[in-house]
Design brief:
With 167 residues, the chain is α+β, with helices and mostly antiparallel strands. It contains one helix and eleven strands.
């Protein structure tokens, strides 16, 4: 009788263990699905690389100008044109590469939507700042806005000829 009871308890324990394992797997899969649905960039490495250019052509109406940099790349005075979506980060496949440990591999993106340029932080470790306010959700960029990522400050220039003007 005792051996039957011990055997039944062993099977009950094994059943509870299996149920726990299946619940854990189900929870992990649900969590992975949630994370992947929240990601902005599903597979940036597979994205075809294009040369930076202005969304309005080659006349330079829209660009990012580095106004201050405490890292080796980019340097103060560097200018970057735009694509429909421009990725900024430490990864070598970024459109604008920041050499520094304060930038995440995929740190931020600027994209064109509904006639406006938007800045979005890609859940970076150290944050993205627009005019010294941390970006927590996509936000519209205006001419002369300052974007800080780590030790690099960019100025968003919507019209190229206004960069040198002091207002």
């Amino acid at each position: 009788m005792l051996t039957i009871l011990i055997t039944a308890l062993r099977y009950a324990f094994l059943l509870l263990l299996l149920i726990s394992i299946f619940r854990l797997i189900k929870w992990m899969i649900a969590d992975l699905k949630e994370v992947s649905s929240q990601q902005v960039i599903e597979n940036p490495p597979g994205r075809p690389r294009e040369e930076p250019r202005s969304s309005f052509g080659t006349t330079g109406e829209v660009e990012l100008v580095v106004v201050e940099s405490s890292v080796s790349q980019p340097k103060s005075g560097d200018t970057f044109g735009f694509q429909r979506e421009t990725l900024i980060g430490r990864d070598e496949r970024s459109d604008i590469i920041i050499a520094g440990t304060f930038a995440s591999a995929w740190h931020a993106r600027i994209y064109f939507k509904e006639g406006q340029y938007w800045l979005e932080d890609l859940k970076s470790t150290n944050g993205t700042f627009l005019n010294e306010i941390q970006v927590n959700q996509p936000i519209v960029l205006a001419n002369r806005d300052k974007i800080r990522i780590g030790g690099v400050i960019f100025q968003f220039v919507r019209w190229g000829y206004e960069m040198g003007a002091d207002h």
